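Troubleshooting: if your tokenizer reports a length mismatch, compare your output against this known-good record of 517 residues.
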Amino acid sequence: MQYLMAIDAGTGSVRAVIFDTEGNQIAVSQQEWTHLEEEGVPNSMTFDTQKNWAITVECIKESIKLSAVRAEDIVAVSATSMREGIVLYDAKGKELWAVANVDARAVDEVKFLKENFDGMEEEFYTLSGQTFALGALPRIMWLKNHKPEIYEKVASVSMIGDWILAKLSGVIATDPSNGGTTGIFSLKERDWVASMATKVGLKDTIFPPVLEVGTVMGNVINQDSGLSSTTKVVMGGGDVQLGAAGLGVTKEGQVAVLGGSFWQQVVNIKSEVQPPKDMSIRVNPHVVTGLSQAEGITFFSGLVMRWFRDAFCDIEKLEAKERGIDTYTVLEEKASKVPVGSYGIMPIFSDAMKYGKWYHASPSFINLSIDPKICNRASMFRSLQENACIVSAINLKKIQEFTGIEIDEIVFAGGASKGALWSQILADVTGCKVKIPKVTEATALGASMAAGVGAGVYETLVEASEKLVAWDREYTPNIENFEIYKNISEKWEEVYEVQLKLVDRGLVDSMWKAPGL
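Known-good structure output:
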């Protein structure tokens, strides 16, 4: 029997997952890790390579133990990771410096680039689909400005998933889907654009080979990892893009909404399609050659729901415990009795995508009532569900406008897709059929597909997804509700603009601002 391993390095944890070649999960070991703020460096989020490698190895060994399979029977391993997190190495491949994806220390560097290189961000965005705020250039500039002795030793850069594969194989490389999120990249060519570094005074010799997802990098040479030297190490990719592959979203025009802590709305487009001129949408290389993904992001949707549950819903928690079900299930049951529109309650949390100049209003609820029969936990909970779907629909509309792709079907995955009410609301708000796959946490499955391609188990990622992805249920839109939500969406956009002006006037605090604003 042959098995595949996926290592999934997320923002808050890392896990090693073993699959069989039919896509069945055999065992998983997961541990949390933390990224600490560097002393005296506001908004920093360092990635401790030494500590986190030890945690990763523990997960690898534990998953093998739990699976009761022989290490020699794991024919290939691949990795996926949070995007934007980077690792810098010296000439011998030793880690020098690393930051997690949420590191935002380079505020001054982003401002410097915007103020001193007029038109450059727009130029780079046209090539890469990325702005300065989340890219690698400002962070590397920060290192040069603040720790020049480390910067001088830098010989290579990779992403965090690539780092795991480098620890296993000894080969430093990246793939387009992960490397593309640095912003030092060409969407069309699926390769580095080293001249971007040259133009801002950085080294242009630090960019490693770019390998397509599923390319064999070598065999495991790290004898302490718990894996066999016969196991192939295979190039993986970014978590959202490999997650899309794990959901069967591998062809042009296919769409997914990933409902996790943040919500991503992704639409597959051809690699040669240029990003929109207004820089409103992020565009990333996909894990499938010839495709990119236009991506909208809704901030904190899942985290806001968790906050609401933990802050206000102790009664529902007790009821859920007594009934042996999830608290969200209880809340959905109550919210399903609330009419469409939640009595006019408007949550103000994440704005729709404005990638070029992005900041949020102060978090709040608008249009509350003092009638407890109307304004209560059930109606507020439903309003949050509706709002996440409304912002997603606005982002998808932006993508439709610049790509010309007609969207009539959405794959919905992540924790939010477990909710029947939430899934139906997404269908009603967007006017699209919504399909729920049996495997909704698909990132690790996508990474195992990459490993399988490298091992020759599957011919391509597209073929693997067609073979392995199965559907659990689907929802069709209620057209009457669709018209109601369209009106609510238009009102919400107007209200949000007014709320942003309160931030502009310094009267309230923004929920989040991109670095450099």
